[in-house]
Amino acid sequence: xxxxxxxxxxxxxxxxxxxxxxxxxxxxxxxxxxxxxxxxxxxxxxxxxxxxxxxxxxxxxxxxxxxxxxxxxxxxxxxxxxxxxxxxxxxxxxxxxxxxxxxxxxxxxxxxxxxxxxxxxxxxxxxxxxxxxxxxxxxxxxxxxxxxxxxxxxxxxxxxx
Length: 161
What we know:
This protein is mainly alpha-helical and 161 residues long.
């Protein structure tokens, strides 16, 4: 699984037959991200299972290493821990833990569809938050306008004296 570092949107998801070593799945995952987004990631933040990956075009940071790093890169390494929660949500909400489809193709389809559903849920959550802010702003503007109408004395009552 490949996600963006800031928002946590999934930009690449693959399943591999068998149980391959994590370091052997790194290059195909980066290639998939490059195909889907038309950009090669500049930075990949991975866990310790990706030692010995052999990747040269992308800077790879392995979690747990902090020697000689800038504070920004250390913050990026800490941000990687949020990906574990994303995986947990995909397993429970997206039913990634149990695949109802048969075979290797079914596993691949299930993983990609789960990633799509996860991204759609994140987009809907952002839209829901934006809509609630918009409604609260409209409600506040309407209340302020009604308050102003109630407190303003019409001009003809002042002049008719």
